[in-house]
Amino acid sequence: MFKNLIAESTAKSPWLFHINSGSCNGCDIELVAVLTPRYDVERLGFKLAGSPRQADIVVVTGPVTKLSLDRVLRTIDQVPDPKCVVTMGSCPQSGNVFKGSYSVCAPLSKYVHVDVDIAGCAPKPEAIIDGLAKATEILKTKRGQM
Amino acid sequence: MDFPFVKEAVSKLFSKPSCNMYPFVESPAAPNYRGRIVFHPETCINCNMCERVCAGGAITHTSVKNEDGDDVVTRSFDLGSCTFCNTCADFCTRHSIELTTDYHMIGIEEGDLIVSGTFVKKAIKKPAPKPAAAPAAAPAKKEGAAPAAPEAPAAPAVQPRGDGKPAQDPSKCVYCTICARKCPGEALTVDRKEKIWKLDEDKCVACGTCADVCPKNAIVL
Amino acid sequence: MTASIFLNGLQYLGYILIFPGFLFCFLCGMLLTGIDRKLVARMQKRVGPPILQPFYDFFKLCGKETIVPAAASRTTFLMAPLVGLAALVVIQLFIPIRGFSAFSGMADIIVILYLLLIPALAAILGAAASGSPYAGVGLSREMVTIIACELPLVLVLLAIAKTVGNAMGTGLCFSLSEIARYQVENGSLITKLSMIPAAVAFAMVIPGETGSHPFDTAEAETEICEGMHAEYSGAPLAVFKLSHAVKVLTMTSLFVALFFGGVGTGITAIDGVIVFALCVVATALFISFVHAVTARLKIEQVFKYYWTVVSGLALISLVLAWYGL
Predict the structure, then answer these.
(1) Where in chain B is the domain with CATH 3.30.70.3270?
(2) For a pLDDT cut of 70, what percent of chain A falls above it?
(3) Closest Cα in chain A to B105
């Protein structure tokens, strides 16, 4: 029963940590828009955590530049289990228009397991909510398997 | 110290929240929103213009020959690499690409974000008659390609005209009309149905735009 | 004889674990923070999280992996949150609900002053043990905040002690249960002229003590990664969140006990509900409302504010109390 309670709570209180890996700021602004009174994801329990140690969902934006790659991987490693990695926008999924650049390590999925991709350039706040909702479901099943 | 938001906070406490209750209430996108790509393979003529203009390199195609010698072309759009700039749809002469207002684009498994379509490109005026006919006699070729090429006598490679004005290679031309649209002097008339490519020599200024834009390199100067 | 000792022991165990103790603190504190978050959201024209959200957060954090950094001192790092929580629960045992108080003593106000320091000190110790530079910045700010809050708090409590002591004819009265009894007999302290500036000063100390806006410089999550809690994860972080919730309850119920002690009916159960309702009002006014209308201050502004405005108010109250107003 206690295990159930924790799994239920995990789905109801996912905290986000946002990493900008060289993004153009478009996706970052949309992610902040999701927290504003217009969309207010706090009503679903989401909260922006200040430190990766307290996060459940890591949201990565930007094309994962060479300099930021190491930091992104280290930050994701710092997140305690169960965790969920979400890539937001086209950049971390493929490199988008920066594809092939010498300083872009684009698909993040080459380095870590990515659970959810949110497509868009930048995605609409509703699409972000969709993706985060999917991520919480994954989080809950991961917690159930622990 | 002053607190400009005191009145605001108190009045908002007793008013309705301005939230968009999205997951519980549907929230349609704005009319001209550019979301999920829909591809209509039945109208595509495989000019590859979309691939050439795509900034994100999101559009790819694979082409396989089937037993009839026709090309089976599969064109795929990777939404995870797309910038949703609408350039491909703008450049598509056949309006085969459409960006809809559907923004629910979530990928969990591989391939969730790929939109693709397959079509068969009939090899009517393309290589099928030519390699067989070129070494053979001209009448035989004329019978084979009767519906396709009215100006067929110039069957081997097209010779440049020498005056800077364009000449068409009927074996390569797909009659996509891009050259006619791009021609600044409106010197070209291309009829897709009748497979006619005509140059008005008086209007032509020999600028070379048509050769630049031709997706098939069917125009020589 | 042994039976009565056993029963007494059982009663005190009940006090510590259930009624004004741990379980009560857990439920009411969490509920207060839930109400606080909801109210702030509503003032910002948002829907806000459900009122039970702090419970979800707590249980979720309990189910997360606990990471102890390699640079950390393990025992201190893990024990610090528990020490802080224990101190807060002990304070709650001393705070009277109208006539009723679980533990009482001659000078429990002074005990409370010391106990109020312990959660902050425990957080500082834990932060120092974590070995993170962010935590280092956070703990130095937290220390300044404590020093800033302590002076007005002491002055307010001194003014109250003087007022009650004057009336009782004992000079200074440092016993919370005495103060509560005095208020039951003579009406709440807030009705006295000399106590109004003290009440205002205490209300201004509440957000500083609980570390809420605009005095949350110590754990400013947008600039120094949650400050002192930067390295905490899982269950210890859950205990820290619980400590924060209990601190909200402690500070507001202390406010209610000191200034509205005369309100109530005399039946402990009903009084408990009334006190809790007053705590909710105090949270709404002094924590949620202040949070909604202010932005975070710089640390030197916090210090200046407490040692000038708030201390000044408390000092006025003390002077008035000395003249018996």
Answers:
(1) 33-121, 158-221
(2) 100
(3) A119
The 10s digit of each residue's pLDDT in B52-65 is 888 888 888 888 88
**Is it true that domain B158-221 has CATH number 3.40.50.10490?**
no
Residues of chain A positioned with their CB less than 8 A from the CB of C224: 50
Residue C73 Cα, gap to closest chain A Cα (Å): 17
What's this model's pTM, rounded to 2 decimal places? 0.78
As its CATH architecture, domain B33-121 has 2-Layer Sandwich (3.30)
Mutation target to probe the B interface, by most B beta carbons within 10 A, among A35, A93, A141 is A93
pLDDT band, very low/low/confident/very high, at B154 (cuts 50, 70, 90)? very low
Q: Quick check: B134 pLDDT over 50?
A: no
Q: Is A9 on the interface with C (CB under 8 A)?
A: yes
Looking at B154-168, C243-257, C281-295, which range is the least confident one?
B154-168
Task: Tell me phi and psi for residue B76, to 5 degrees.
Answer: -125, 145
Which pLDDT value is given to residue A57? 92
Instruction: Provide the pLDDT confidence category of residue A86 given band limits of 50, 70 and 90.
Output: very high
Q: What's the confidence (pLDDT) of residue A59?
A: 92
From the candidates B105, B109, B114, which should be mutated to test the interface with A, based on the most A CB atoms within 10 A?
B105
Q: Does C71 touch chain A (CB under 8 A)?
A: no
pLDDT, tens digit, 9 for 90 and up, residues B179-196: 888 776 678 888 888 888
pLDDT at site C128 = 86
Interchain contact, B81 vs A95, CB within 8 Å:
yes
Interchain contact, A116 vs B112, CB within 8 Å: no
pLDDT in tens, C62-85: 888 888 888 878 888 888 888 988
Residues in chain A within 8 Å Cβ distance of B81: 90, 93-96, 99
Q: Report residue C277 CA to chain centroid gap.
A: 16
Task: Give the CATH fold of the A2-145 domain.
Answer: Rossmann fold (3.40.50)
Contact A144/C at CB under 8 A: no
The partner residue sitting opposite C45, judged by closest CB among B6, B17, B21, is B17
CB contact under 8 A, B12 and C44: yes
pLDDT band at B139 (very low <50, low <70, confident <90, very high): very low
What's the pLDDT band for A60 if we cut at 50, 70, 90?
very high
What is the predicted pLDDT for the residue at C4?
81
CA distance B29 to chain A (A): 9
Domain ranges of chain A: 2-145
